[in-house]
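Researcher: Please translate sequence to structure tokens.
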Amino acid sequence: MLGWQVTNPGADVRRAVSRVEMATPRPGAGELLVAVDACGVCRTDLHVASGELPVHRRSVVPGHEVVGHVAEVGADVTGWRAGDRVGVAWLRETDGTCHFCTRGNENLCPASRYTGWDADGGYAEFTTVRADFAYALPSGYTDAELAPLLCAGIIGFRALRLSDLPPGGRLGIYGFGGSAHLTAQVAIAQGAEVHVLTRSPRAQQLALDLGAASARDAGEGPPVPLDSAIIFAPVGTLVPTALRALDRGGTLAIAGIYLTDIPSLRYEEELFQERTVRSVTANTRQDGRDLLDFAEHHRLEVAVTPYAWENADAALIDLAEGRVRGAAVLGTFDPAEGP
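Model: Translation complete:
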């Protein structure tokens, strides 16, 4: 099969990844072999390719927003059969026995492993997934629309939960890409007033089109004090900016696996009055199920920039340089649909 591998991680993303012929994987016991129909291009893939995340598997196939169908069912698998539509996400497996797993925080499991980092992911014709970590997918969406839900959607959903947004509260969103544009819609559907802070005029317009109450540059700040905020951009200098925008008792959630250094915080201006900062680490499978169930019952508008499989390197470069509207997705598209 053909697939993309991270063969030379570094700042030059085009040199970091290579399209190669490789062996088709086989499903082990408890696993599914998935024929990949579409795969989202997540900023975490960019961190893996650029070396900002340490190498966990040499020549790994990136990609963890996988939509496909079951090509083969491994031994001891129940509940899945060949031809079923299936989703594969970032969290690949946990030990299921540590105190984090048993208390419902499997995302913090020290033995956790991740698709497209510890094991080959979806930038290829086939991938594998443990059947108990695979997702059934909601109806009414195309493959390209579903792909971003499997990480961008799920991690944004968890970040929204951890932001402790009160009912009808004011939420600030910093950065407005693949994850943020989905999270904004969930928050608005739940009754929140959403204010988007991003430097991109195109992203500002998308935010307003999706129902945001305001869209401004982060330096300008929101027009009202915020009850909660989420930072999606991997920019540590936004942390004090977002904290200053919070009202008393507000919570800031940082929804990224990678963040540049955070400047020194001034206690009285940025943390006093019971303001809280929380990191967001991966997600649990229940987060994924809940987000996909929400998407089944609340139609989400998924902004997709499509790329052909052979242009995965271009998709990563465009993501790095801020040229992607919404979420980039690899798949088989009509040339008129995208790059």
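Researcher: Any highlights?
Model: The chain has eleven helices and 16 strands.
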